[in-house]
Amino acid sequence: MGALGVIDIRLHDGHARQAEVRQWPVRIGRALDNDVVLDDPRVAAHHLSVYPDEAGRLRFAVGETRNGIRLDGKRYGSGSAGIWPPRLALHLGETVLLARTAAETLPDEQPLARRTGSPLNLLLLTALFAYAARDAWLDQNQALSWWRMLLPPFTALALLLVVWTGGWSLVSKLFTKLLDGTRHLRIALIGLLLVIIGNETLARTAFAFNLPGLERYSAYFNFAAFAALAYAHLRAIAPARRWRPLLWVGVPALALAAAFGLQQYARSGNPAGNHFMTALYPPAWRVAAPRSLDDFIADSATVQSALDARAADPSEDDREYPE
Q1: Is the link from the previous residue into 25 a cis peptide, with omega within 30 of 0?
Q2: CA dihedral in degrees (88, 93, 94, 100; nearest 10)?
Q3: Residue 283: is the preceding peptide bond cis (ω within 30°)?
Q4: N or C: which end of the chain has fewer CB within 10 A?
Q5: 44, 29 contact by CB (below 8 A)
Q6: How far apart are CA 220 and CA 224, in angstroms?
Q7: Contact 193, 128 (CB under 8 A)
Q8: 97 in Cβ contact with 9 (< 8 Å)
Q9: Nearest to 67 by CA among 93, 34, 41
Q10: pTM of the full predicted structure?
Q11: CA atoms within 13 A on the CB side of 31
């Protein structure tokens, strides 16, 4: 007798396996007398049973369980029952199940997606190193040959990519048995380019619209961007988990950002990373309306009183200011 169906099981550690259905109902849980035995500690001994009804639709019945199941955004507790639609994931504990019966019509074969990982990575690498070369050229203040100018930033960037990608590849190997270095390199390249684009956009927007706070507080954007980058790596390693990786990267990122802000405030009385805008752009980029000379002089007159008040504050003696 052939299989009556198949249940795809995505385990809580990211691994996957498949169980053939030889008879109905199928009992699922941690106890050894189940048809499908799971080792998820958040699954009950006899968590769930699955069976077809007279119309051939799959139905489920939830056993004695504290956590119940989740299906199509709804939670079903102990003793509840319902229909399990085809190709819809059912969550119990941290395990995900997909079921297919022999009577179910197979969908058409999907075309094989073309693998663009290596060409895309090459394109991203070219863009990243081109930006590094442009930055080195703009910072050049003495006559050096081109290779002396490019060697330090290229070496630092290559070392950063090797260490970052290699570290995440080793973590992937530890938990999924696959290095998946190409994927982690692509995530790192996209993340770094987005950080660069974000910082450049903040700086230019701050100049154009007279919003210096956008650039002064750009360090906090970097904390959020690198937290998102780490989250993308963790999701690539454990796609079944969503909220736990978010906590793993979100809490440390918030703690580091808070520590950075407190350190800046203790040094200068301001939590901003930069104390002023660090770049001037062509005047044609300026969108904000210019200020009149009278307004500028009137505002300048208030600077002396603010400086005198700050100088009289005893806490200012221990603060450091950029020269």
Answers
A1: yes
A2: -30
A3: no
A4: C
A5: yes
A6: 6
A7: yes
A8: yes
A9: 93
A10: 0.63
A11: 13
Model confidence over 17-38: pLDDT tens digits? 888 888 899 999 999 999 999 9
Residues 37, 27 contacting (CB under 8 angstroms):
no
| Topology of domain 5-101, CATH | Tumour Suppressor Smad4 (2.60.200)
Neighbouring C-beta atoms of residue 277, cutoff 10 Å? 17
pLDDT tens digits, 55-114? 888 999 999 999 999 998 889 999 999 998 888 889 998 899 988 888 887 778 888 756
Distance CA 78, CA 63 (A): 5
- Residue corresponding to tokens 């995530």: 187
| Domain ranges within the chain, ordered by starting residue | 5-101, 117-268
Q: Residue type at 3?
A: A
First to last CA, the chain: 83
